[in-house]
Amino acid sequence: MLPLLSLSLLLAATPALAVWPVPRQYSTGSTPLRLSPSFSIKLPGVDNPPSDLQEAISRTKSYLHKDQLQALVPDRGASSAEDIENAKTLNTLTLTLSTTGPIKSISEEAIADLESRVEGYTLTIPADGSGASLRANSTLGLFRGLTTFGQLWYDLNGITYTLQAPFDIVDSPAFPYRGLMLDTARNYFPVEDIKRTLDAMSWVKINTFHWHVVDSQSFPLVVPGYTELSAKGAYSSAQVYTPADVEEIVAYAAARGIDVMPEIDTPGHTSIIAKAYPEHIACFEASPWSSFANEPPAGQLRLASTATTTFTTGLLEAVASLFQSKLFSTGGDELNSNCYTQDNATQADLAAQGKTLDQALDTFVQATHAGLRSVGKRAVVWEELVLDHPVTLANDTIALVWISSTNAAAVAQKGYKLIHAASDYFYLDCGGGGWVGENVLGNSWCDPFKTWQKSYSFNPFANLTEEQSNLVLGGQHLLWAEQSGPSNLDPIVWPRAASSAEVFWSGPGGDVDTSLPRLHDVSFRFQQRGVDAIALQPLWCALRPGKCDLNA
Amino acid sequence: MFKLAFLYLGAAVLLPNSVFGLWPIPRNLQLGTTFLKLASSFDVEINFNDAPQDLLDAVNRTKVYLETDGLRRLVVGRGQNDSTAIAQALELSHLTISLSSTIAPRSIAEEAILPLGTRSESYSLSIPSDGSPATLRADSTLGLFRGLTTFTQLWYDFEGVTYTYQAPVKIVNDTPAFPYRGFMLDTARNFFSVADIERTLDAMSWVKINMFHWHVVDSQSFPLDIPRFPELAAKGAYSSNEIYSAADVNDIVSYAGARGIDVLVEIDTPGHTAAIADSHPEHIACNQASPWSQFANEPPAGQLRLASAATTKFTTELIYSIAKTVPSTLFGTGGDELNTNCYTQDAQTQADLSSSGRTLEQALSLFVQSTHKSLAALGKTPVVWEEMVLEHNVTLPETAVVMVWISSQHAASVAAENYHIVHAPSDYFYLVR
């Protein structure tokens, strides 16, 4: 783990670089340089390079050609026309893989163990047009470097140029887990929307797609051996993810350096399962729902039932077989005990076994996690299973800390590795008002809206000892989709989700003053690439860095 | 002068939570529970001569919506549970539309821009459950258009069949409680294409919104291309692609008019005008002054030199030349968030004030009166933000319309001064986060 450099010190020393996330070490110059019309990317030392690396190279060249992002200055670069026309030309970017042994594809590297992923790279672009070079110890590192390379160039009258050569970049992530969670159960998102989001994630080096694929409202996942779940539980036959869809998404992600971590949230959040297997669900659509669940409809797995435990374990293993990731989340949030108190079947089971609810929960979780381990998966759970219930978890279980950023310390104290998913910083859905009906005051529980500045200010080590800090794997933004769908996916996620991407790649402590122009830049580049990021400010301000600051 | 209509929800026979799809909920509404479907030969019959083109277009659009909406009912099963009832339903083959008057009908667009309070938007709609023709009657083509809008909201799709489950439908004289039902869009802080505006006008018409308040320019950009003052957009627009040409404005006004929407253009003055300095620095005080918070409510700072005769003339001509090209009887001159420190620090303004022997407030009043006089010459009524009434001593015409925005509670103060009010409260209706 590289020592964490203070971002603001770094940025004060060198001119602002629009790359996002900001590389951990870099220097830039002020020499114009342009890409020659015959610019090419070469990989000389590798016979039979992996196809996903070749495709990444193609995509990079395509971005260089098609981004056509004009500089974010009032005249969009017009006054630099002469400098640009007279600039030296860069003909080649040479890629070097400094590794011994068999070469792994980006896709293979992307799903390696969290703690042993290799994502670093070195990028050098001289000012004189002599060849640029990109080196890494893995194809994944090369991919990260190609992503950075693609963010350096602007367009003026069809010329692709930079004004900041030479570049010297040595970069690697501060944290191994940098994610984005999408809930596709409250509202459905077509495969194309997920793929577009994966592309956008890769552009800011986010490396994990936490797919909260099913929940109480719908079950869109077609699971071999359990097809009744989606047949009865999906919103419609068109609103499903078939195994082929999942394979497509997993492959698309992996080729972009993204690991897909599925979540089947259990035992709460499972109302919809009753459509196919009513015997396994307690308090199904019970009313008033607020006595039985955190949101409607109510319904939780009968965790004290052996049959249900076996069913759930089988289901999780079947789902696990669809995914390549070593990580698998079984959820575990927002358990409602009243649901079980009122459930005769559960009470009977508890009495017969002589167990308390928590003991039965322990048995349930141990069984499901053992099943996952037997198919090579590492369990990820929401914080309640560490903090609110005395459940036995394997040492390598990872906890998602969500209720409040301050709970991280309690999780770390128990010795579990953790992922920051703080609702007070990273929930993209907050601030849209309460979504349940008959709620006249209409505020959401996690008001207010989490601005990019708020999430950017996150400190992953708050309240942690130095030793506990080693337990922090990283963090993510999350989109709960009660009030979202394809029609607002891009603007509600971007560019805010980029702020956690930088906190966990570049390290915390960045300065919102100097980052705003850079965030505008990446946001505008997103739009050029077909992702509809929302406007952060009037265009007037985006073109005049600093002029719309509070004290300008 | 029109009387404020009292709001009442009418004699709806059915419980409110049984009324689906109709928004806004019609007044004097009766619904049934009988299934009825559109015959494949369904057509709209116009029972009068000389139907204007925009009514004919509206009828066509109605038929397109009926055919292509394809909205399945929002119930579990999306209508599957009613498949038998739908199959067995009687068929409606005609909607007959007629006007009460025998005078040659005016176009929807003409009706839509009549002075507030004189517009006729009411209609009566009857859809029998036995398949006999449905009838839509109104006093104006605008009323017919409102009725057609309601008609389209009644139908759902199931496997290609267009049906309703709420026949018979009887609406007797659905009429708006308020004459001004608007939506404001700011196209200056960030640009919106003509296509985006037109799509928004369509959406507005689907819920009977009848005013498009177009906050077209502001301090950050001036996208309005005015033939008499081309330099304003040439220098002040974000780019030559981010402009509304005179033709664009005409297209938008026509598109709106055909959908029963009146376009209220606002050129916010004297504040919110920094973009004018890009072409006419002589008319703007404290242009991009720093720190902006001392000179404006948001960056960049810049306000019209309201004490200057030349600037007053310029602004008056500017407003006149734009107002002349749009048919609405209303025109917005803004007047919000005046920053006095901007003028205190402006040597030119101070010189103008002292040589004319006026206070800032007096100069402001003369400035506003000048622009409003030019509107009066065009037969137009000015629309202003509340500060012109509540925070400044400005002489306004009696007929001026005042937009109350700072807080819903300010409506009472404006009403106490006897002006007409449009509610635009930031604490209820501002769509920004």
Give a description of the structure.
The complex is a heterodimer of chains A (552) and B (433). Residues 1-6 and 8-13 of chain A have low confidence and may be disordered. In chain A, α2 (51-66) runs parallel beside α5 (139-149), α6 packs parallel to α8 and α9 (306-320) runs parallel beside α12 (357-374). Chain A has helices spanning 7-13, 51-66, 81-85, 106-110, 139-149, 191-203, 228-233, 243-254, 306-320, 337-341, 344-353, 357-374, 384-387, 408-413, 423-426, 452-456, 466-469, 489-493, 496-506, 512-528, 539-542; strands at residues 25-27, 31-42, 88-97, 121-125, 132-136, 154-156, 159-165, 167-171, 177-183, 208-212, 259-263, 281-282, 300-301, 327-331, 378-382, 398-401, 417-420, 472-479. The longest helix of chain A has 18 residues, at 357-374. With 552 residues, chain A is an alpha/beta fold. In chain A, the strands form three sheets. An eight-stranded mixed β-sheet of chain A has the order 1-8-4-5-3-2-7-6. An eight-stranded parallel β-sheet of chain A has the order 11-10-9-18-17-16-15-14. Chain A is elongated, with a radius of gyration of 24 Å. The two termini of chain A are 38 Å apart. Helices cover 33% and strands 18% of the residues of chain A. Chain B has 433 residues and is of the alpha/beta class. Chain B contains 13 helices and 17 strands. In chain B, strands 1-8-4-5-3-2-7-6 form an eight-stranded mixed β-sheet. In chain B, strands 14-15-16-17 form a four-stranded parallel β-sheet. A three-stranded parallel β-sheet of chain B has the order 9-10-11, covered by helices on one side. In chain B, a hairpin with a 2-residue loop joins β6 and β7. The two termini of chain B are 37 Å apart. Residues 1-16 of chain B have low confidence and may be disordered. Classes of the chains: A alpha/beta (552), B alpha/beta (433). The interface between A and B is medium-sized, with 14 and 19 residues.
Quick overview of this protein structure:
The complex is a heterodimer of chains A (552) and B (433). Chain A is an alpha/beta fold and 552 residues long. Chain A has 21 helices and 18 strands.
